[in-house]
Structures are given as C-alpha cells and as structure tokens.
Amino acid sequence: MERVRFEEVSKRYVLGERLNAREALAGAVRRAARRTVQPPDELWSLRDVSFAVADGEALGIVGRNGAGKSTILKILAGITSPSAGVSRTRGRVAALLEVGTGFHPELTGRENVFLNGAVLGMSRRDLVRRFEDIVNFAGTERFLDTPIKRYSSGMQLRLAFAVAAHLEPDVLVVDEVLAVGDAEFQRKCIGRMAEAEQEGRTVVFVSHDLDTLTRLCRRGIWLEAGQVREVGSAQAIVRDYLASGLTSSSSGGALLASGPVTVRDVGVSPASGRPGAALFREDAFVIRVGFDLAEEVPGLDLTLFVTTPNGVRVLDEALSDQGPVQLAAGSYCAELSVPPVLNFGEFTVGLWIGTMHQDFIHETAVTTFTLVGTGHDRPERILVTNAPFEIHAIPSLASGPITGEAGVD
Ligand SMILES: Nc1ncnc2c1ncn2[C@@H]1O[C@H](COP(=O)(O)OP(=O)(O)OP(=O)(O)O)[C@@H](O)[C@H]1O
Ligand SMILES: [Mg+2]
What we know:
Elements: E1 2-14, H1 21-34, E2 42-54, E3 58-62, H2 69-76, E4 84-89, E5 93-96, H3 109-119, H4 124-138, H5 153-166, E6 171-175, H6 183-198, E7 202-206, H7 210-216, E8 219-224, E9 227-233, H8 234-243, E10 256-258, E11 261-270, E12 279-280, E13 285-293, E14 301-307, E15 313-318, E16 330-338, E17 345-354, E18 359-372
Parallel strand pairs: 3-7, 3-8, 5-6, 6-7, 12-18
Antiparallel strand pairs: 1-2, 1-4, 8-9, 10-11, 11-13, 13-16, 14-15, 14-17, 17-18
The structure holds adenosine-5'-triphosphate (ATP) and magnesium ion.
Adenosine-5'-triphosphate is lined by residues 13, 15, 43, 45, 63, 65-71.
C-alpha cells in the first residue's frame, strides 16, 4: 500500500525579498527607465520530482546542500505546498524539521505535548497513554511545567523528537536534526526510528550522515539541484552519491584545477607490485596524487582521506602532519603509504588542497578502490588492526595452572 506519492512536484521560490534595499531600488529604477515589467528572480527548489513510499518503508534522501531535500520534507509535512504537481500522503504525518518546530514558546512542555497530539488528531485517551513514554524518552520530566522558551535547544529537540516518534504517526519525517543531540540521544533516536519502521510506520529521513542513513533506510533517493538523480536501494544510492565527485582521468587532461594547483592524476596501487594489480587486504598500499604547482604558495597543504561506502571517514592524513611543507613551483607526486589496517571492501579516496585561508581543491572524491580478502568472519568491522590482545590469569582468583600461551613469559 502506498503512503506517500509525489507526482512531478515542483517548488518555486521567489527571491525578490532577498534583495537588499539598495539592489531593490536600483532594480526599480532600471525597470522604470525601461518601462517594462521584469519578472521577479525565482528559483526552482524542486523540478518534476516523482517518487512513492510504501507503507512501512523507510526512505532516505541524500543530496548536496541546497539540493531540495528539506523542501520535499516541508511539502510532505504540509508546511508548504507545491507550485506544480501533486503530493499525496495518506494518514497522519509527524515531522521533525527544525529545533522547536511545532512548539509554542509560551506554553509549557506538557501543554505542547498535548497540543501536538491534538494537531495530529490523537484522542485524549491515546495521548494520556503515550504521555509517559514521551516524557521518559525525552528525559525532560523536571521541566514539564516550564514554558518551552526556557528550554535549551537540546531539550527542545529531545522533546520534539519524543513527541514526533511516539504520537503513532503513519508517516514520520525527520530532517537532519539529530546532529544537534549528543551521541547517546542520537542512538536513542535512531533506535526509535527503526522501531517505528518495524511497527509498520513509514519513515522519511534526510541526513548527511550516510552511515546512519544506510542502516536505517532500505530505499534511497539522490537529489541533485532539485531533481531526482537516482532512486534505488539506499546502499546503491549512497555508493553512487559518494562516487559522484569522481572525474575521469582517461582523457589525459587535468583532473581538477583551481588557482595555482592542477591535479593530473590520482591512483591507488599495492606498495610492492605493479600499478593496476589487485589490492589485497593484507598488504600495504599507496595512494598517489600527481599535481602541478604554478607558483609557490606559502602554507600550502594537501590532505587525503578514505571513506567507506557508507560515508565513514576512516583515514584523513595531511602532508603537514609530517612537518612543514614548502613547495616551489613545479610538478609533484604526493604518496600516502597506508599500512594494511582496513578490512576488505570498497573505499573512496578524497582529496583537499589549500591553505589555512583558502581552498584550492575543495574536499572531493577523486577515485575508488577495492581491497580484496576476507574479514575473518567479521565483515562489519572497518579496521583489522591485529592489535595485541592478551589474557592473563590473576593468581589469587584462578586455581590451577595458567592456560594459554598468550602473554605468558
Ligand atoms: N523560503 C525560501 N525562500 C527562497 N528560497 C528557498 C527557501 N527555502 C529554500 N530555498 C532554496 O531552495 C533550495 C533548496 O533548499 P533546501 O532547503 O530544500 O535544500 P536542502 O537539500 O535541504 O539543503 P541542506 O543540505 O543545506 O539542508 C535552495 O537553493 C534554497 O536556497
Ligand atoms: Mg535541508
């Protein structure tokens, strides 16, 4: 059964009000001079976006800043309406969009919980039954009779999430806000969202935390400049989204160029062995960046980072970590030697070049590589460090001889 359907939804914002007074005046004078009426500046936040979410499905939306993710959620929650197209949602929608959204600042926490429930169409009986769960989850019982305006933003978030997640909505919409809470609360929220999904509720989740997103959502949408670039399994979407920074170096031209820096090529190869050979999990490997520098740039630095398909950054190394960097104009090859600490799987290499004050090459994914091998039955782990792990019998507690040779000298 379908819960949410977007059919060629477009959203247009008029930007006129963003102009400052001087620009607005200049525009008015210009228009008067030309005696023509100019249409106001407009921006299409969404363009012909179509998708559907089934009952009980968790959908994750990814995309760069300004891609239109929050706009989709606002339309879903009924806070704004499409300029064109149709959006249909069956059932009750609870949305957690921004800190404090949906709360009345003058009312107390308790009053706000009841107000939210009423807005969602819950009966008073259901509300009373759920009230304790909400308050326990939020951990704000001491402040129940305090006006919301005296809550810290973290407390508001906790209560808002608790309300949205416990008022038995058919559709739970959550936008990024988890980033505001502490780690423990984030875990609780993710757990609660997973529960909501298991209870058969539909969840729509926007996050730049791709790891959490793939754990929580089975399906995904990748939004780019207001349009759907890809729909599919969350895993596949995240992988393609991460790899989208890739630029092909096959043309022989520059990969990336900005200011005095031109990146010619980026490659990953075994530390010992020919370039292009398979990379084994058990072996060290080298990431190489070939670049040209048109002039000496004081304080120039280069970082390489490695992320998992879910977006977890496992390595992030700066050239300057090793000591001061000073490069004259010329051609260079930077080499990062990575010891065999990563588990098998797919990884993405990212690059940044700049100074304290200026980015020449913004953080960009530049290539991907795959480590082959086995994770010794623990594919979930990212690192395989073989860190020393010993066991010692404690004489006063253990009876009999010490068994096992590890750590015994
Ligand atoms: N009220 C508004 N008035 C004018 N423009 C708006 C308004 N709200 C959003 N926009 C514009 O619409 C576009 C999409 O914005 P949206 O907030 O949906 O992006 P987003 O994908 O959520 O980005 P982020 O990752 O930064 O949260 C942006 O260019 C934004 O500037
Ligand atoms: Mg947003």
